[in-house]
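Q: Convert this sequence to structure tokens.
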Amino acid sequence: MGQPDGLRYIIYGAGAIGGAIGGRLFEHGHDVTLVARGAHHAALREHLELVSSDGGRQLSVPVVDSVAATRPGSDDVVILTMKSQDTATAITELAAVADSDVVVVCGQNGVDNERQALRRFRRVYAMCVMLPATYLRPGVVEVGWVPRTGILDLGRYPAGTDATAARIAADLEASTFLSRPDALVMRRKYHKLLLNLGNALDAACGPAGRASELYQLARAEAEACYRAAGIDFASDEEDRARRAELQRRPAGLSARHGGRSGFRGSSSWQSLARGTGTIEADYLNGEIVLLGRQHEVATPVNELLQRVANQMARERTAPGSYTIEDLLAQLG
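A:
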């Protein structure tokens, strides 16, 4: 399936996002190796089932259970798609087997992964991911948009573009994604972080959470922190304009999340649904808490959401177990 003169893509953390990116690249003729673990790795050894409203595909993508088994080289692109709480361990494992010149692309939520990667690797790229996907069963990844699977813009970290970014974007464009080099892609990732502040609410309270006043309060705290820290971020108008370039129709998989048609749980919702025991709230709401403490901006709502999300993950509480009123009462 690989192209003789093409890049090899190592998808490190082949869950929902990694499975969707790796599956589409492989389906369109690119050299791909997935890195997964546990039951998911065992299922992927049979095949990756990539499901969307235009049908299911069973893809025999090569898969290994450790990044060491991929033997990363200078012509490889390692796309990190694990949750942010797992990045430090993943980078340590990658650094043990890869040269510091290997290309590392951070296709994750939050804004801290790139900084962690840059400590160990010279060629680090930030990718802003707009890709609704679900991984709840081993070996099965559901994607929500067709015919374009999502938007994956990327650029050098901390800023800039180069020929490598252009080449990766071209490969993604040819594999059902919209992708372009963006010299200021971190502006977009900081805007996406504002949206991801609702992940904890989505996980705790279901779809009502993201539409609640608590989300608006959490976002207002974040924007105040950005201003205090001098952080530039994309506007809602910029975000809408980029999304408008994506023709999409819903996957229509009504069985998703217990039959609640139309509700696509966030990555945090999925972590609770799978009972993983961890959640990425420390790198979403917790990022705002950190900025608030550094710049003396009060962030009580984000502190609450960080605490509740971590408690739910630790105690393996089912998603949707709280109401907005429960959280407001805790906020006091």
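The longest strand covers residues 123-130.
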